[in-house]
Design goal:
The complex is a heterodimer of chains A (126) and B (397). Chain A is α/β, with parallel strands linked by helices and 126 residues long. In chain A, 45% of the residues lie in helices and 20% in strands. Chain A is globular, with a radius of gyration of 13 Å. In chain B, the strands form three sheets. Chain B has a six-stranded antiparallel β-sheet, sandwiched between helices. In chain B, strands 8-10-11-13-12 form a five-stranded mixed β-sheet, with helices on one face. Classes of the chains: A alpha/beta (126), B alpha+beta (397).
């Protein structure tokens, strides 16, 4: 049932990556909303209040880490699960992400199937 | 009286700015030179002066409290204006300086001798000068020594500028590699991700030829990705920001694993591997990265050893240093190639001519990892007689 589908916000400035993630998650039965930069992601998060936000770290303007911090600071979006897409496996990027309140991260390039599994995993967490 | 403005003043000030030395902290290298000048010339005051647009600023000063004075009062500006050494026996009897506040008041200059600091382009940036409160003259030897010291000061300034330029270049290089790596990973993520979706049977069946072609794309995407990863990691190693996760690891177990993973390739080639190590050799290090070191050295040894040859892996549990050596009976490395062996993208003639695959990054990374652990790596070889790599790593803590 459409209305029961969990909502996933996918934010990445790279259109192909965004389409790939949307395709995989839509095929998995989620309702996906897309944003192409950090500000749009934040606006969409406030209007849609998704269950999970999949955020690219390196976006122009607000980064994925900035968006995570903003989501955590707002009562309405505090509970949104966040998975960061990082293009670097460097410890300090990951640490900054977790510091801002992210639930998980996936390093680019990533397997769409694995990302789907991670989304399911954070949804299962309480 | 203020000194005339040099004809090349605009160029001169631009050069001075490029040296980026104004208002920096005192440095021993310059303080040594002024101390030496004061001692040799037997005077109470010695200054390393840089003549700025409206002031003279002292990079080093002996016997004077202030860090700068107005340019209008500067003796050094006269030497800079001429680009020649200046000696004033008694300022009170010299019309250029008799009314100068530095003469009529503190520090009561009477005697002044300055040797200009002249750049390679012939621009005088300032002087190394000596000052006394009574009239006098320098001996020929003292005057000559003062000029030598001024040249030494100029050489020091040149060195400083070169260091700054090198550091700036280094930073640019690191940023470049990091940006390039990032920009390569995003398209690679698309390639790898869409490939996975293509293979997904839910999207319809593919025939065997299509699958075979996709394997090729896959393999090459992997190759490109490991190249990007290696480059990024190398850049991090060189920048000292590789972020090793240091814990207590067993190098004997790590080496044994590397040996095991090479056994098949070695057996297929008819190369024997001899492994000689104590039961456990613990040290503080990054296990994943040390595995990379052992894997690299061992796979190189197997790659470059012909059938019937032997690769010996030996681990010696010294204290405070653990030594891992990998010797082979392979093609060896020519003496003129040994020095370049650890450079990025360097490939030996033997590797190139035998078309042995590799990017030439493996040993650069290996050395980077070893050095990040505070260790050293060395190589001994002769053409046709095999090669031995020796890694020494401190146990740490």
């Amino acid at each position: 049932m459409e209305s029961d589908a969990k909502v996933i916000l996918v934010a990445d400035d790279d259109e192909d990556i965004r389409a790939l993630v949307s395709y995989r998650l839509t095929a998995a039965g989620f309702r996906v909303v897309e944003a192409s930069d950090g500000q749009e992601a934040l606006d969409l998060a406030l209007s849609e209040v998704p269950d999970v936000a999949v955020l690219d770290v390196m976006m122009p303007g607000l980064t994925g880490v900035d968006v995570t911090r903003a989501l955590r600071a707002d009562d309405r979006t505090q509970g949104v699960k966040v998975i960061l897409l990082t293009s670097r496996s460097q410890e300090h990027d990951v640490a900054a992400g977790f510091g801002a309140g992210a639930d998980d991260y996936v390093t680019k390039p990533f397997s769409p199937q694995e990302l789907q599994a991670r989304v399911n995993a954070v949804l299962a967490r309480r | 009286m203020a000194a005339p403005t040099p004809s090349n003043e605009v160029k001169r000030l631009r050069a001075l700015a490029e040296y980026d030395v104004l208002d920096t902290s005192p440095e021993a290298a310059y303080d040594d030179l002024t101390a030496l000048a004061a001692q040799i010339c037997d005077v109470p005051i010695s200054l390393l002066t840089l003549v700025d647009s409206d002031r003279q600023w002292f990079k080093s000063r002996i016997g004077l409290e202030r860090a700068e004075t107005p340019r209008d009062h500067s003796f050094c500006a006269w030497a800079v204006s001429d680009g020649m050494p200046l000696e004033v026996e008694d300022a009170l009897t010299d019309e250029r300086f008799a009314a100068n506040p530095l003469v009529t008041g503190d520090p009561n200059i009477r005697f002044y001798a300055g040797a200009p600091l002249v750049t390679e382009e012939g621009l005088a940036l300032g002087t190394l000068c000596v000052i006394d409160r009574q009239p006098r003259r320098l001996t020929e030897a003292q005057a000559s020594a003062l000029q030598s010291l001024a040249r030494a000061a100029m050489a020091q300034l040149d060195l400083r500028r070169q260091n700054d330029q090198l550091r700036a270049l280094d930073r640019m290089k690191e940023e470049f590699v990091a940006v390039v790596s990032h920009e390569l990973r995003t398209p690679l993520a698309s390639v790898v991700g869409y490939l996975e979706e293509l293979r997904n049977e839910a999207n319809g069946p593919l025939n065997d030829t299509q699958l075979r072609f996709l394997d090729v794309v896959d393999r090459n995407a992997d190759r490109l990705l490991s190249l990007v990863n290696d480059l990024l990691f190398l850049a991090q190693l060189e920048a000292g920001s590789a972020g090793l996760s240091i814990e207590t690891v067993d190098l004997a177990a790590i080496a044994a694993e590397a040996v095991d993973s090479c056994r098949l390739a070695a057996a297929e080639k008819g190369v024997e591997i001899v492994f000689d190590a104590p039961a456990a050799v613990e040290l503080r290090g990054d296990g994943r990265r040390l595995s990379q070191v052992a894997d690299n050295l061992l796979s190189n040894a197997v790659k470059f050893t012909p059938a019937g040859g032997t690769v010996v892996v030996r681990l010696v549990a010294g204290d405070p240093t653990v030594t891992l050596s990998v010797s082979d009976t392979g093609v060896g490395i020519a003496a003129d190639e040994l020095a370049h062996l650890f450079g990025r993208f360097y490939r030996t003639r033997a590797a190139a001519s035998a078309a042995i695959p590799g990017t030439g990054l493996g040993l650069a990374i290996t050395r980077g990892i070893v050095e990040a652990h505070g260790g050293t790596i060395g190589v001994e070889s002769a053409s046709g007689e095999g090669t031995t790599f020796t890694v020494s790593i401190p146990r740490g803590e």
